[in-house]
Amino acid sequence: TMVKMRLTGGNDAVILAKRKNKNYAQSCSNEKTFTEACFKGEVPEEDLSRPDEKPPIKLEIAGDKESSQYSPSSGTAINGKPSTVKLDLGGSVWIVGCMEGENLTMVKMRFTATNKASIMAKRKSNKYIEACSNQNTFTEACFTGKVPDADPLGPDEKPRIQLEIAGDKEPSQYSPSSSTAINGKHVTLKIDLGGSVWIVGIVEGKILTMVKMRFTGATKAS
Asked: Residue 66 class from Cβ within 10 Å (0-12 exposed, 13-18 middle, 19+ buried)?
């Protein structure tokens, strides 16, 4: 029984699809050999009026926050004002904010490189609690308020939020040790991309073999 989901928070997720398969390959029952190709089979019946015949799949979610590869630096600004609060949501997703008069203006973004990010959502609030204006007490719950109008035809009425992005590479919690090997050969090349993401490589004859990976534990990586 399988569920495809998109995590939206530490213990929250959106269900994308479900499958049940009694003719699965043996490799699909092992975490080391489980692949996306294993996600096939019958779409389970969700009719609650017949629970004994085909009970619905119930998912209990417990998530871990992925380390961020990039983070907003002191040069990050909203509408020309330096951000004063920021929150790491994991996976290089951040919320940054600043005070504009009586408004707390915030942007949720996902870093794709040191100085590049995709905007996920924007909020403006003039009814924020005092804790949300302080870096030490700013939480994800602070990201509330009105969705700002981004219509450039009425800039004087509701000016759009403009974000200036300046990022730093996050330090890595884990690193490949001298025993790390590719095809049985110890790696001779490695580079830290930040956030426990590394590229390691070896030279095999005239071929340079490389692997890009993210450490999820001292001896585990994806």
From this structure: middle
Token readout for 174 is 């884990």
For the chain, state the CA radius of gyration. 23
- The model's pLDDT over 126-168, given as tens digits with 9 standing for 90+, comes to 999 999 999 999 999 999 999 886 544 444 444 466 777 776 7
Task: Say which amino acid occupies 99.
Answer: M
- Residue stretches of the chain with pLDDT short of 70: 7-12, 46-66, 149-161, 167
Residue 70 tokens, joined: 């990039």
Q: What is the pLDDT of residue 158?
A: 47
- For residue 186, report the phi and psi dihedrals to the nearest 5 degrees: -65, 140
Across 49-102, the runs of DSSP E, i.e. the strands, are 70-72, 77-78, 81-82, 85-90, 93-100
